[in-house]
Design goal:
Number of strands: 15
Distance between the termini: 26 Å
Strand order of the largest sheet: 2-3-1-4-5-6-7-8-9
Number of helices: 20
Shape: globular
Structural class: alpha/beta
Largest sheet: 9 strands, mixed
Helix content: 40-55%
C-alpha cells in the first residue's frame, strides 16, 4: 500500500505538470527509465521481479520497491513544484486508485494476487494515464458550468475582443497591447499565461467588469481544434499571430500543422494582424487575402527593408525604436528593448482600437516586460543577469544570446550561459540544442548544462564549436538549477554576466 502510494504521488505530479493530458505520463516514464543506466537496470530488474513473483512471492517486494523508489532523480516531492491538491487532481487520484484496486482484484481472481499488486506499483504510469483518459468526460462536465457562466458574462458586458496567439511572443504582445490601449480604453487582459479554456473562463468570470470596452486574451494550443474552441467562447474581432516556430513540434509533428492550429484564431475575425517576417505567416496572409470574403489583414514587420509591404513596421535606428506605417512615422522612442515584431503587432492593434498615434508614442516609452523574458538586472554581487527562463524556442534563444553579447558590464567580464536546453521540438530537438550550444560558446566563455534531458546534444554542440574555433569554451555539467545558481555565485563577480536560458521543471530528467 505504501509503495503504491509513493509511486502514485510521483506520477500524479508528472500528470499535473503536463496539464493532465492523457498519454504524457507514460511518455515521461520512458524518458526517466532510459535516462541513465541505473534506472534502466532498475526497470529491467523490476519487470523480472514481477514475472518471478508468480512463483516466488518475495520477488513482488522487489518489484514494489523498484516502483516506489525509482526512477532515480524523480522525487515524490518536487523541487520546482509539488502536488497541488486541486479538485481535478483529487479526481484523477481517486480514478487511479480505483483502477489499481481493480487490477489487484483481477490478479487475485486469477490466483496471482502478488503479481497483480507488484504490477500495479511498477506500472503506475500506465494506470495514471488510463485514469486521465477515464476522467476526460468528468472534467468536461465539471468545466461546462464554469464556461457557460463566462459566456453569459461576456454577452452581458460585450467588450471588443482582441485574441493573441503564436508559437512565441504572445504573452509579451498581449502585455504591450494592454499597455498601449489602457490609457484610452477600459481594458481587461487575461493574466499571466491564462491561455486555455478554463484560464479564459476564469479571466471573464473573475475579472470582466461592467463597462469594460476591450478584452485582450492570449490563446495557447497543444492540439488542433483547441483555439477554435477558445474562439467559440471568446469570439475575437481582432486576431493576432506573432510567430510560428518549432515550439510543441513534439505534439504537432510538423510546422504546417502548427500553422493550421494557430490560424484557427482568424476564423470569423474582422481584422487579422500578422508578423509577415515569419514566412509561414506571410503565406497565411496571402491565403487569407485570397478568400472570397477576406478579413482586413494588417501586415507587421521588423525587417530592415520594411518587410513585404508592411502596414506597420518597427525597427531600431541606432538606440531609437522607429515605428512607421506607409507614408508616416508613428513614433520615435529611445531605450525600448522589446522585440520589434511584437511591438509592431501591438501598435497595429492599438491603432485598430482607436488609440491616437501620439498616445501610442508616449506609451511606448514605458513598455512593460514579461516576467523572466529577457529581463536584464544587476545582482547585488555586481553580476549582470539576463533572465530568459520563460523562453524556450530557438528564435528566443538567439535573441537572448544577442542580449548577452550586448551587455557591457564594467571590466573585461566573463560571459556565462546557463541552460537545460529546449524541449518539445520533436525530431529537431537534438539539432536545435546542438546548434544553440555552438552559438552559446561563440557568445560566452562558459556553458553550464543543467540536467540530463539535453546534455548529450548540448555537449556535442560544444565539442563542434571547439573544433571549428580551434579553442572552445568551458562546459560545466550540473544536475539541477539550484546547483547552477550556486556555481554562478561562487564563480562570477562584478563585471561578469550570465544568461539563464529556459528552466525546465523537475519532472524532466
Amino acid at each position: 500500500m505504501v509503495a503504491a502510494a509513493a509511486a502514485a504521488l510521483r506520477w500524479l505530479r508528472v500528470a499535473q505538470r503536463e496539464h493532465y493530458a492523457p498519454g504524457r505520463v507514460v511518455r515521461f516514464a520512458g524518458r526517466w527509465w532510459a535516462d541513465r543506466a541505473l534506472n534502466a537496470a532498475a526497470l529491467a530488474g523490476g519487470v523480472a521481479a514481477v514475472a518471478a513473483s508468480g512463483f516466488a512471492p518475495l520477488a513482488g517486494l522487489v518489484a514494489a520497491a523498484v516502483g516506489a523508489g525509482a526512477p532515480v532523480g524523480l522525487g515524490v516531492r518536487g523541487r520546482t513544484g509539488g502536488l497541488a491538491w486541486t479538485r481535478r487532481l483529487t479526481t484523477l487520484a481517486v480514478a487511479t486508485g480505483f483502477l489499481g484496486a481493480c487490477a489487484v482484484a483481477g490478479g487475485a481472481i486469477a490466483g496471482q494476487p502478488v503479481v497483480g499488486a507488484a504490477a500495479v506499483v511498477l506500472g503506475m504510469p500506465f494506470l495514471v494515464d488510463a485514469a486521465a483518459w477515464c476522467v476526460v468526460p468528468v472534467e468536461a462536465r465539471a468545466a461546462a458550468g464554469f464556461v457557460r457562466s463566462a459566456s453569459r458574462r461576456l454577452a452581458q458586458v460585450c467588450p471588443e475582443v482582441v485574441a493573441v496567439t503564436g508559437s512565441y511572443g504572445k504573452t509579451s504582445t498581449k502585455l504591450f497591447i494592454a499597455h498601449l490601449a489602457s490609457s484610452t480604453r477600459s481594458l481587461v487582459a487575461s493574466p499571466a499565461s491564462f491561455n486555455n479554456l478554463m484560464g479564459l473562463a476564469r479571466t471573464i468570470n473573475e475579472g470582466l467588469a461592467a463597462g469594460t470596452d476591450v478584452l485582450v486574451v492570449e490563446m495557447g494550443t497543444y492540439a488542433p481544434g483547441e483555439i477554435a474552441r477558445l474562439c467559440r467562447l471568446v469570439p475575437p474581432r481582432i486576431s493576432v499571430i506573432t510567430a510560428i516556430g518549432p515550439v510543441h513540434l513534439e505534439r504537432f509533428r510538423s510546422e504546417e500543422r502548427i500553422v493550421a492550429a494557430k490560424s484557427e484564431i482568424t476564423d470569423g475575425a474582422e481584422v487579422v494582424v500578422l508578423n509577415v517576417d515569419n514566412p509561414h505567416l506571410a503565406a497565411l496572409a496571402d491565403r487569407l487575402a485570397a478568400r472570397p470574403r477576406p478579413p482586413r489583414i494588417v501586415r507587421c514587420s521588423a525587417a530592415p527593408a520594411g518587410g513585404r509591404g508592411a502596414d506597420v513596421h518597427a525597427a531600431l535606428d541606432g538606440e531609437t525604436l522607429v515605428v512607421r506605417r506607409p507614408g508616416e512615422v508613428l513614433a520615435r522612442v529611445a531605450g525600448v528593448a522589446a522585440p520589434a515584431t511584437n511591438v509592431a503587432c501591438a501598435v497595429a492593434v492599438a491603432l485598430e482600437l482607436g488609440v491616437p498615434p501620439g498616445e501610442i508614442e508616449r506609451r511606448l516609452a514605458s513598455l512593460p516586460s514579461a516576467a523572466h523574458r529577457l529581463e536584464i538586472v544587476r545582482a547585488a554581487s555586481g553580476v549582470v543577469v539576463v533572465d530568459d527562463t520563460y523562453n524556450a524556442n530557438p528564435a528566443g534563444a538567439q535573441a537572448a544570446l544577442a542580449a548577452l553579447a550586448g551587455v557591457d558590464p564594467e571590466g573585461p567580464g566573463r560571459r556565462v550561459v546557463v541552460t537545460p536546453g529546449m524541449v518539445e521540438l520533436g525530431g529537431r530537438q537534438f539539432a536545435e540544442n546542438e546548434a544553440f550550444a555552438r552559438d552559446a560558446l561563440a557568445a560566452a566563455d562558459t556553458l553550464v548544462v543543467v540536467g540530463r534531458t539535453n546534455r548529450r546534444a548540448l555537449t556535442a554542440g560544444a565539442r563542434h564549436r571547439a573544433g571549428e574555433a580551434g579553442a572552445g569554451g568551458t562546459v560545466v555539467l550540473v544536475p539541477d538549477r539550484p546547483r547552477a545558481v550556486d556555481w554562478v555565485r561562487r564563480n562570477l563577480g562584478p563585471g561578469d554576466a550570465v544568461l539563464y536560458e529556459n528552466d525546465l521543471p523537475d519532472h524532466y530528467p
